[in-house]
Amino acid sequence: MDTVGSDDRAAPSSKNQAPVIPLAGGSAADSTTVLIETARAWLRQDPDPETQVQLRGLINAAGDGDSAALVSLHDRFDTRLEFGTAGLRGEISAGSNRMNRVLVSQAASGLASYLLNHAKPGVTPSVVIGYDGRKNSHIFATDTAAIMSGVGVHAILLPRLLPTPVLAFAVRHLDASAGVMVTASHNPPNDNGYKVYLGGENNGAQIVSPDDKLIAAQILRVAAEELVPKLPRAAYETAEEDVVRAYITATASIAHTPRAQVNTVYTALHGVGWDTTRRVLEQAGFELPTLVDAQVAPDAAFPTVAFPNPEEPGAMDLSYETAREVNAELIIANDPDADRLAVAVPDAGESSGYRRLSGNEVGMILGWRAATLAAQAAGDQPLVGTLACSIVSSPALRAVADAYGLDFADTLTGFKWVSRAPGLIFGYEEALGYLVNPTTVRDKDGISAAVSLLSLVTDLKSEGLTLENHLDQFTEKFGHFASGQISVRVSDLSTIARVMTRLRHTPPEFVGNVAVAQIDDFRWGLGGLPPSDVLRIRLVDGSRVMVRPSGTEPKLKVYLDTHSTTGTVEERKATSIAALAELEQGMRDLIT
C-alpha cells in the first residue's frame, strides 16, 4: 500500500496483459470481439464529439492488437459506474464505467421512470436540476432536463451555475418530487457527478436505500432496452432568479447584526461559491472579505490547485499568502460546489502563518453554538432537539449534547444520513460538512456554515476573544478532543478488502501499547444503523479508532480520536495529542 501523497488516479498499467475473460466455451479472441462490439454499440449512441473521437481511437487500436488499448476498453466496459446513495461520480471519458453523456442520459431516463412509477395518481412528478462550473456540468444538466421532460416529468433547470446548497434548497422551496445536482464536489478536475435528492416526506434529502436501488434498476433497464438517440426529449422550464433570492434571504436570516467586523479572506477554489456567498454576506450585514482573486471565478481546469479540496496539502496556499498580505484574522474557503467550508486562523507556529482547523474542530464549536442558541430560544421550556454527526466524526458533539440535555444521533458517513436525524438542529461530518439550518436545507451547506461561523467570530471579537480562545473554552468545559486520520491510497482495491478481513479475523488485542476493550463490526448493521463496511475499535483509555474503505476513492481510511479532562487546558491538550500520536503509530503498524 502507498500512503497518500499522489493525486493520480489508479489506472491499469499498459505493461499488463488485458484481463481477458473468455466466453463460456469460447476463446480469448471471442471475448475480445465481444468487447470491441460492445464499445462500437456504445459509440453509436454517443452524442459527444470528444468522447466519440476518444473511443473510436481505442477501438481501432484494440482491433490492431494494441494491448494497452484493449486494457483500457476492459476498464471502461467490463463494469458500469454504479448508481448508489451518492448517485454517480467518476472521470469524464467514454465508456459505461465513466461519466459521459450516454451514462447521464440513461440515468436521467431511469430516474424519470422511477418518479413516474411512484407519483400519486393524477399528479405530475417534478424535478429541479442544478449544475456547477465543472466540465460538462451544463451539458449533463440540460440533457437531463430535456430527457425527463420528454417522458412527462415537469423539469425545472436552475437559471445558471450555482452551489449545491441552492439546489438542495430549491427541492423544498419549489416542492419538487426530486432534485439532481451535476457536480463532483471536490474531486479531481476531470471528474463529474450526479447527486439525486428526493422531495415530499424526504424533505429534500439525498437518496438512501431502497430508493437508490429502485432508481438504479430503472437505469439498468433503460441501458438494456433503449437507445440514447431515441430517448424522447422536450422543452423544459428554466427557473427565475426568485429561487436564488429566496435561498439568500433564508441563509442571511440565520445571522444577527454583527457586533464587530472581522478582517477575513475568502477563496472559492475556482468553484461557484463566491457570487451567492457575497450576496448572503451583504444581506446579513457583514463586511465583504478580501478575495483570493486567482481562485474566485469558476474555472473547470482548477489551474492553481493540484486537487480542488481544501483538505489537501497546498490547496489553501494562495489563501494563506493573501491573508498574510492583509493581516487577516480569519480565512474561509468553500470547495468548488460550496457545500463544504474550510476555516483557518492565525498561527505563528505554522510556516504559512495560518492553521486550518480540522472539520471536527469547526463541527464541535458550531454544534456548541447551536446548542447555546437553542437553550436561549427555549428559555424556561424544556430543551428539545438533536445534534448529529457521522460515526467517524469526533465524540465531542455527543459531549455537547449531553451537557445541554439534547438528543444525540450518530449516523453512517454521508449527509444523506446526517440530514435525516429526527429533530435535527445541527449536524456535521469531519470532512468539512456542516448543516446549521435544517429547516431550510437538508444537506451540508458551506455558505450557511460560513455565516454561522462569522456570526460566532464577530461575537467573540466584540468580547476581545478569538476563535482559538473559544476552542480553549471548549476544552475547559468539555475536555480536549484530539482527532487524526490515516488515509492509505491503493492501486488495487482488493488490498483494502484484505486489510478489513485481517482485522476481522485476527482482531488486535492492542493498538500501540494500549489494550483494546471492544471491537464493533457494522458489517451487518449495529445500534439501529444500516449495514456498512466499518470497524470501531474502543481502547481501555477511552480512545477510539474507526476503520472503513472510502466511498468515493481507492483509499482505506482510519479515524483516530482521543480525549482528556485532566488538568489545565494545556495539560489536557498535551495528554490527548500524545495519546493520538501513539494511536496513529499503532494503527499504521496494524494496517501495513
UniProtKB/TrEMBL annotation:
<feature type="domain" description="Alpha-D-phosphohexomutase C-terminal">
    <location>
        <begin position="514"/>
        <end position="567"/>
    </location>
</feature>
<dbReference type="InterPro" id="IPR005846">
    <property type="entry name" value="A-D-PHexomutase_a/b/a-III"/>
</dbReference>
<dbReference type="Pfam" id="PF02880">
    <property type="entry name" value="PGM_PMM_III"/>
</dbReference>
<keyword id="KW-0479">Metal-binding</keyword>
<feature type="domain" description="Alpha-D-phosphohexomutase alpha/beta/alpha">
    <location>
        <begin position="249"/>
        <end position="344"/>
    </location>
</feature>
<dbReference type="InterPro" id="IPR036900">
    <property type="entry name" value="A-D-PHexomutase_C_sf"/>
</dbReference>
<keyword id="KW-0597">Phosphoprotein</keyword>
<dbReference type="GO" id="GO:0006166">
    <property type="term" value="P:purine ribonucleoside salvage"/>
</dbReference>
<dbReference type="InterPro" id="IPR016066">
    <property type="entry name" value="A-D-PHexomutase_CS"/>
</dbReference>
<dbReference type="InterPro" id="IPR005843">
    <property type="entry name" value="A-D-PHexomutase_C"/>
</dbReference>
<comment type="similarity">
    <text>Belongs to the phosphohexose mutase family.</text>
</comment>
<protein>
    <submittedName>
        <fullName>Phospho-sugar mutase</fullName>
    </submittedName>
</protein>
<keyword id="KW-0413">Isomerase</keyword>
<dbReference type="Pfam" id="PF02879">
    <property type="entry name" value="PGM_PMM_II"/>
</dbReference>
<feature type="domain" description="Alpha-D-phosphohexomutase alpha/beta/alpha">
    <location>
        <begin position="81"/>
        <end position="221"/>
    </location>
</feature>
<feature type="region of interest" description="Disordered">
    <location>
        <begin position="1"/>
        <end position="24"/>
    </location>
</feature>
<dbReference type="Pfam" id="PF00408">
    <property type="entry name" value="PGM_PMM_IV"/>
</dbReference>
<dbReference type="Pfam" id="PF02878">
    <property type="entry name" value="PGM_PMM_I"/>
</dbReference>
<dbReference type="InterPro" id="IPR005844">
    <property type="entry name" value="A-D-PHexomutase_a/b/a-I"/>
</dbReference>
<dbReference type="GO" id="GO:0005975">
    <property type="term" value="P:carbohydrate metabolic process"/>
</dbReference>
<keyword id="KW-0460">Magnesium</keyword>
<dbReference type="InterPro" id="IPR016055">
    <property type="entry name" value="A-D-PHexomutase_a/b/a-I/II/III"/>
</dbReference>
<dbReference type="GO" id="GO:0000287">
    <property type="term" value="F:magnesium ion binding"/>
</dbReference>
<feature type="compositionally biased region" description="Basic and acidic residues">
    <location>
        <begin position="1"/>
        <end position="10"/>
    </location>
</feature>
<dbReference type="InterPro" id="IPR005845">
    <property type="entry name" value="A-D-PHexomutase_a/b/a-II"/>
</dbReference>
<dbReference type="GO" id="GO:0008973">
    <property type="term" value="F:phosphopentomutase activity"/>
</dbReference>
<feature type="domain" description="Alpha-D-phosphohexomutase alpha/beta/alpha">
    <location>
        <begin position="374"/>
        <end position="476"/>
    </location>
</feature>
